Structures are given as C-alpha cells and as structure tokens.
Amino acid sequence: MLMERRIAWLLLAGAVAATSVVALNRYDGHDFIYSVWAPIRGLLSGRNPYDPANTDYFRRYEVPVVAGLYTPAALLLYAPLALLSQSRAAEAITIINVALIWLGVLLLIPPRTVRGCLLAGVVGALVIASAPADHTIELGQLSAMAFAGLALFVASLRSGTGAMWLPSIGIVLLALKPQSGIPVLVALAVLGYWQVLARAAAVLVITSVPAALLFMTAAGNPSAVIATVSNNTNLLSRLPPNDLADPRNLRIDALGLVSHLNGLDLTGLAWAGFVLVAATVVFVLALRVYNHGCARPRMDPSVATLLAVYVVISLYHLTYDQLLLYVGPLAALAAVTQNGSPSRCSRFLAGGAFALVGTGVAFRPGFRARIIDLGISDLIVHKAWVIMPTLIGILLVCGVIALRERASYSHASFDLADRIA
User: Fold this and answer.
1) What does the pLDDT read at residue 283?
2) How far apart are CA 379 and CA 375, in angstroms?
3) Residue 84 backbone dihedrals phi, psi, to 5 degrees
4) Contact present, 317 and 184 (Cβ < 8 Å)
5) Taken in order 328, 200, 29, 65, is the CA torsion positive or negative?
6) CB contact set of 262 (below 8 Å; sequence gap of 6+)
7) By the 8 A CB rule, do 338 and 386 touch?
8) CA-to-CA distance for 305 and 349, rounded, in angstroms?
9) What's the Cα-to-Cα distance from 129 to each of 133, 136, 330, rounded to whole Å?
C-alpha cells in the first residue's frame, strides 16, 4: 500500500512538472504588465496610470493602453514583482499562475489517497490544457488567483479547517477584480456567511489603502478621480474583447451571452445594474430550492457551482474567467470518487466537470483552428468557445434544481403515504 501511494505521488508530481513545462513555453504576460506592473511603477512615480489622456505614462512604461481598474489590493499583493523588469515580471506571473491553477485543483481534489493522486493528476493536466487556463497563462491574467481563491473558500468550508481566516482569504483573492468582488460579497451576505464577509471586506479595505492613496495623489483631486474612472471604463468597454457591439467580443457574462445569441448590444451602467439585481434575485430563489429554506446552506459542490455561475454572469467577465466555473464540478468529482454513496446531484455535477473541462480542451487555440479547417464558420466557432462553458454552468444549476425538486416531491409523497397508512 505504501509503495502504491509513493507511485501515485510520483505520477502526480510528473503530471504537475510536465504540464507546467509545456504551459510555461507559451506566454506573453502583457495583461499583467499593462494592468499591474506598469500601474504600480506609475503610481510610485506620481503618474496616473488610469487616465487615457496621460500620454507621458504611456511613453514612460511603453504600454499602449490605460490600466484596468483592479481592486487596489491587487497592486499591493503583486508589488514585489514591480521590482523586476518587464520580461522577468512576465515570466514570474506565468510561473505563479501555473502554480495557482494546480493549487486550486489540489484543494478541490485532495491527493490523500492513491485514487485521489491519480484523479488530481489527470484532472489537473486537463485543466492546465484547457482554453481558459491557456488564455490566463498566456496573458498573465489574475483569473488563476481568482480560481485558487474560490477553491480555497470552498475547500476550507467543506473540510471545516481554517474556518477563522482561510475562507476570507479565498474571497479576498477572488475579489482582486471588482467585477468578481462585488457579486461574491453580495453572495456571502445572501448565504449568511457574515463573519467571512466581514473579515474579507476588512482585509480588502486595509490592503487597498496604499494604492488608493497613491491614485488620489496622482489624479490630483476627487473630481479628477471620478473623471479618470469614468473615462477609463468608457475607453476599455469599447476595446474589441469587451465591446458588446463587436461579434467577436470575449464576454461570458449575461450581457455577453445575449450579444452572442441574438446580437443585441445592451451596453451601459443601467443594463449592468439591472443584470446584477436580476441575477441576485435568481440566486436567492435558487438557494431556497437548493437548501429548502435553510438560513445558512452548506458549501457543497452544488452551492459552489451556483455561486460561480452567479459571479460570472452578474457582471463583466471574459473567457479566462471560465476557470471559476470549474470549481463546483471539480469538488463534486472528488466527492463522487471518495464517497461510497454520493448523491445524485454530486454524480450529475461530476459529469458536468468532464463536460466543462472537455469543452475547455476542445476549444484550445490549435483545436479551434482545426475545427475551422473542417469548414465551420470562424464566427460560429468563436461564439461556441465563448458561451458554451457559461451555458453548461447554467444547465448544471438547472439540473441540480430539478433533482432537488424531484427529491423533495418524493419525500413529500412518502410522508403523505405514511400518514394515510
């Protein structure tokens, strides 16, 4: 038994090493450079990296576009990498992102047994090979940190260990982008995890102070801060990956789905606010079905899946954020393989894990090119790559609701039969 476990650990280590080497051969890191590395240096030198009119900043740091408005805490977290050159920083974030994706997989599928090691190795290799992971590693995106953060949140609550701070740390890592942070903090309130919410909010506020003060100093005054934020979001929303009017946009949120399915361009703050409110209402209603009115539901794989879908669809997210959709189904896959009598919902979600990861692998850039070579329209392939994971996530949520409703109806029927008897 000891020999089998050592072999399993060796195979897992080999999978981690092999996939990491392959992933590290293809990277660019420009998103990290544009939105984290250059802004840190710019703010420290008194330049405003978020102002589209600040041409001095563009020339000084050789960036073609303003920085994205990440949570200021993200700049503090990655500040040590700003000490490196652009190329070294790009290499460092690539290594960090590969490690974070593997960390997320191992948190969700703990390699405590021979079966766990083998499953984690196979699934981890497929996740690293998937399109969202490939996109994340290539660009140096923070979605790997968000994936690891959500995995840490789910795994620590499910295991019952580190209940004081680990779930809150996971939420902080997920909230390094405001479009993920806002819905996940709302979700924590709906779920009743008030202590996790309070700790995460406190950490985010405290760690955001240094970069926020530097930003306000660089901008000059409060009105300039507001104008910068407005001009920044307006400019970035018109870039091709973000522009809902562009049929090749990379939006995977609810407004992105609408644009890809019927071409409607529902832009503007009003539509974004409407979607956030509507998604929150649906989230609350779905939780009532999931947990039969419990005030504080357990963080099982079905709730984790619902949470990830809610975060992704409620506000602006792009294709690399599809990694978040993997969290709940991967936790279900671990539960099915390690539990002698898994529930129907867990088995259903475990199948969803293969569907999601399989879709991610099928839509890697090289495979997309081969599909196009078969004569399928480039635009159709692009739309399928962008929207299919989100649609699969929504179908998984609907499937769990149907299974829960069916189980509830069966229990009610048995209770009625017992009363009649």
Assistant:
1) 96
2) 12
3) -90, 165
4) no
5) positive
6) none
7) no
8) 8
9) 7, 11, 15
pLDDT of the residue at 412: 47
Q: CB of 275 within 8 A of CB of 253?
A: yes
Determine the length of the chain.
Answer: 421
List the pLDDT tens digit at each of the 421 positions of the chain: 677 778 888 889 898 999 888 887 878 899 999 999 999 999 999 999 999 998 899 999 999 999 999 999 999 999 999 999 999 999 999 999 999 999 999 999 999 888 989 999 999 999 999 999 999 999 999 999 999 999 999 999 987 755 678 999 999 999 999 999 999 999 999 999 999 999 999 999 999 999 999 999 999 999 999 999 999 998 888 888 999 999 999 999 999 999 999 877 888 889 999 999 999 999 999 998 877 655 556 788 999 999 999 999 999 999 999 999 999 999 999 999 887 678 889 899 999 999 999 999 999 999 999 999 999 999 999 999 999 999 999 999 999 999 988 766 555 444 444 445 4
CB 244 within 8 A of CB 255: yes
Give the span between the Cα atoms of 69 and 49, in whole angstroms.
10
* Under 8 Å between Cβ of 326 and 131: no
Residue 204 is encoded by which pair of tokens? Answer: 């985010």
400 in Cβ contact with 346 (< 8 Å): no
Phi and psi at residue 61, to the nearest 5°: -110, 10
Q: Are 313 and 257 in contact (CB under 8 A)?
A: yes
pLDDT of residue 418: 46
Whole-number Å distance between alpha carbons of 141 and 320? 8
Residue 395: which of 336, 313, 309 has the closest Cα? Answer: 309
How many CA atoms does the CB half-sphere of 282 hold within 13 Å?
19
> What 3-state DSSP class applies to 130?
coil
Give the 3-state secondary structure of residue 409.
helix
Query: 332: closest CA among 314, 349, 318, 316?
Result: 349
Helix (H, G, I), strand (E, B) or coil at 209: helix
123 vs 287: CA distance, rounded Å: 28
In 171-229 the beta strands, taken as DSSP E runs, fall at none
Q: How many helices (H) and strands (E) does the chain have?
A: 20, 0
Beta bridge partners of 251: 318
Tokens 């008897």 correspond to: 421
SS3 109: coil
**Taking the alpha carbons of 67, 267, 276, 323 in that order, is the dihedral positive or negative?**
negative
